[in-house]
Amino acid sequence: MITSVLVANRGEIARRVFRTCRELGIRTVAVFSDADESAPFVGEADVAVRLPGSAPSDTYLRGDLVIAAALKAGADAIHPGYGFLSENAQFARDVEAAGLVWIGPDPATIDAMGSKIRAKELMSAGGVPILSVDPAQGWIGPLLVKASAGGGGRGMRVVTDPDDLEGELAKAAAEAQSSFGDPTVFVEPYLPTARHIEVQVMADAHGTCWVVGDRDCSIQRRHQKVVEEAPAPDVSDAVRTVLHDAARAAVKAVDYRGAGTVEFLVADAHLETGTVYFLEMNTRLQVEHPVTEEVFGVDLVACQIAVAEGQALGREPEGPAGHAVEVRLYAEDPADGWQPQTGTVRTFEVGGDVRVDSGVESGSVVGIHYDAMIAKVVAHGPDRTTAVRRLDDALRRTRLHGVSTNLDFLRSILRDEEFGAARVHTALLDERLEQWTRPRLDEAAVRRLALAAAAAQASSASSTARVLGRIPAAFRNVPSQPRTRSYVTPAGDELTVSYSAGLVQHDLDGVAVVVATPTRVVLEVDGVTETYDVATGPGWVDVDGPHGSIDLSPLPRFVDPADAVAEGSLLAPMPAAVVSVAVTDGQQVAKGDVIVVLEAMKMQHTITAPTDGVVTQLSVTTGAQVESGAVLAVIEGEGS
Question: What average pLDDT does this structure show over 238-243?
């Protein structure tokens, strides 16, 4: 019997495993990097062991340190979560060699299926159709470059021009090495309009194999899943049978044990003649496992632990019952090339009766070293329409401030006509990107949010003045021009609200200020009452209202000229580590030349010259850490 589990991971998956362990009466052990010292998962474990450093290569990818931590803390089993070392066969062997229980499949199975290349060979030998490239055919593009180890979209690149293949292979290998410690990559034909459907399996050491339904994961950006649902909608009975039979065959082919996922690309899934292609088998728990748990009423982590203890699984769960949809809430800006965002999450509260698996709480810091996911939000309903509606409403009620996120983007997906009709495929996000990244708040709604901010701030100032001097703020014995408050919106737009006479008069037609306190403002809009909650701090004002939320930055009246940057400055788009510097001071460069390569949240970002010119004021070196907005270098063009 397992009595104490160390989770060799962090964030929401560590908290997820701890939750099941507590329900089973199992002691928990966390490992944490220096960057995660104050993270919620650390405090939730019974005990925790520090892994010195912050980079994954120094901490969560150091299997020797993780095993030493387990032995030091008295754990008798290790759960790998997903990512990091979860599909590292040597780590699994080392765990067992140390006398610990490995909560996962046999290391030999990880070797066989953890390598996407080897998995394809096994499935092909078993008669399962696969996607492959025959070098003798020459260029058949487009192609998809993929990391052989790991997942999550790391080390994946679409190549549409044969001249780009060599460079994209190198970039994918670098990302794969950074994320998984293995630079091996391969290529396969890219089918942009197929559906990505996967099958959840669970098998024990007694010959029992469960097929716990299927999931659709077709809504993806940069090959990383954004929305997942179970069961996969609009799939013909014939195709679903092929998917489930192929998954069982995969389990049998490698004598699989534990939780796993068999992934497929499916063309024409709604037709009886739809075609199924094997992609890969993930020998671990998937990020999207909650939707399966919701519709089958099963705890997959508890099953993993039972199998690791040698128990038999018993009868396959009945289901699915109803429908479940999950979205991944990320600290990123969809309208700005998915740039990861960092900072302190001032407020994080999800509305509605939904499941939230999260690695952060109000007050948590999202840093540069790890994945930018804030939470998985999951809604379950008796049917797909209800589940989607409940999830959208929960996101509408969510209060999330301090970092830019994809929350509005997720709501746009859930309300999209194509998604609502289950006409999904892996290219749908790219096709609808412009529409889904449009601001959800119209100008009138944004101005009412700004008015609420101004009213709350004016109320706070008035309260302070009355306490200190008994004279209302903005008091004048001779009336003058209206007062104004200016803010910068998350989109970078400047917004000014003018008002006078204690906000009784302002520049919004049809809107009246009914109540104004430092934290709560009530507006009447054409006879309809709207309530806004306001929080204010140094340099920020957060407003939540019936139409949504906004983070506003109060604009100072005077700007220090020293804050301006030189023309041609290349700025860091986010806090990051400098991977490489391709130029020297004084070097002549052409437009598009690589200047600096940054890495943040396990993704590389290339900074290029915006114009022909000369490099000056180069201020970074390889290995340095830079803050968002830092000047990396200046490109002085001709005539500067």
Answer: 96
Compute the average pLDDT of residues 104-120: 86
**What is the band of 472 on the pLDDT scale with cuts at 50, 70, 90?**
very low
Within-domain flag for 87: yes
Please list the residues that pair with 378 across neighbouring strands.
326, 355
pLDDT of 467 reads: 42
Same domain, yes or no, for 224 and 278?
A: yes
With CA atoms as reference, report the closest residue to 584 among 613, 610, 618, 609: 618
432: CB partners within 8 A, 6+ apart: 413, 416, 418
d(CA 104, CA 304): 7
**DSSP 3-state assignment of 430?**
helix
- pLDDT, one tens digit per residue, over 241-259 is 999 999 998 898 889 999 9
Alpha-carbon span 279 to 188, nearest angstrom: 10
Q: Do 489 and 431 fall within a single domain?
A: no
Q: Is the peptide bond between 52 and the residue preceding it cis, with omega within 30 degrees of 0?
A: no
Do 222 and 349 sit in the same domain of this protein? yes
Q: Write the pLDDT tens digit of every residue in 357-410.
A: 999 999 999 998 998 999 999 999 999 999 999 999 999 999 999 999 999 999
Tokens matching residue 397:
């009620």
**DSSP for residue 194:** S
Whether 173 and 214 share a structural domain: no
Tell whether 527 and 627 lie within a shared domain. no
Place of tokens 């194999």: 209
Q: What is the Cα–Cα distance from 216 to 194, expressed in whole angstroms?
A: 11
Phi, psi of 69 (to 5 degrees): -65, -40
**Neighbour count for residue 194 (Cβ, 10 Å):** 23
* Same domain, yes or no: 424 and 447: no
Helix (H, G, I), strand (E, B) or coil at 279: strand
Amino acid at 103: I
- What dihedral angle (degrees, nearest 10) is formed by the CA atoms of 254, 259, 265, 267? 100
Category of 535 on φ-ψ map: left (φ > 0), alpha (ψ -120 to 50) or beta: beta
**pLDDT exceeds 70 at position 105:** yes
CA dist 290 and 327 (Å) reads: 11
Average pLDDT over residues 514-521: 95
Longest dimension (CA), the chain: 90
Neighbouring C-beta atoms of residue 416, cutoff 10 Å: 17
Q: Which token pair is 190? A: 């890219």
Number of domains in the chain: 5
Q: Which has more pLDDT, 424 or 472?
A: 424
Domain of 184, in residue numbers: 132-189
- In the chain, % helix, strand, coil (3-state, to 5) comes to 30, 30, 40
Cα–Cα distances (Å) from 478 to 421, 469, 474, 475, 481, in that order, read 62, 19, 11, 9, 10
Residue 395 and residue 361 share a domain: yes
Is residue 464 within 8 A of residue 514, CB to CB? The reply is no
What is the structure's pLDDT at 216?
98
- Would the pLDDT of 528 be above 90? yes
Q: What is the pLDDT of residue 560?
A: 54
| Res 247: pLDDT | 93
Q: 356 and 447: one domain?
A: no
